[in-house]
Amino acid sequence: MDTVKPVRDALDVINGKWKLPIIISVGVGNERFSDIQESIPGITPKAMAKELKDLEQHKLIQRIVTNDYPVKITYRWTPYANTLIPIINALKEWEIKHRQEVFKK
Questions:
Q1: Fewer CB near the terminus (10 Å): N or C of the chain?
Q2: Which domains does the chain have, with CATH numbers?
Q3: Rounded CA gap, 62 and 74, in Å?
Q4: For the whole model, what pTM was predicted?
C-alpha cells in the first residue's frame, strides 16, 4: 500500500506555518478575523487571509457573512474539520513525548 502519497497530500492541506494554528484558533471559539489574528503571534493579515481562503476551499473553515450594517464576517469550523481533532491531539501528545525524549524534560 502506498503510504507516502496520501500522507503527502494530507500535509499539503494542513502544512505550513499558519494553517494548524488557524484551525485550532477557530476551533476554540475565535470567530472574528481580529480575534484569530491576536491569538496567533506573528501572523500577518495578508498571510492569514490567504490561509483562511485555502482552509475554506478544503472545507475545514466556513466563512459566514452577515449582511448587517456594518457587514459582519465570522469564521467557524465545519463539521468536516472535526475529523482533524484526533490528528491535532496525536500531534500534541507526540510533541510532549518528543520533548521529553530529546530534552529530557
A1: N
A2: 4-78 (1.10.10.10)
A3: 8
A4: 0.86
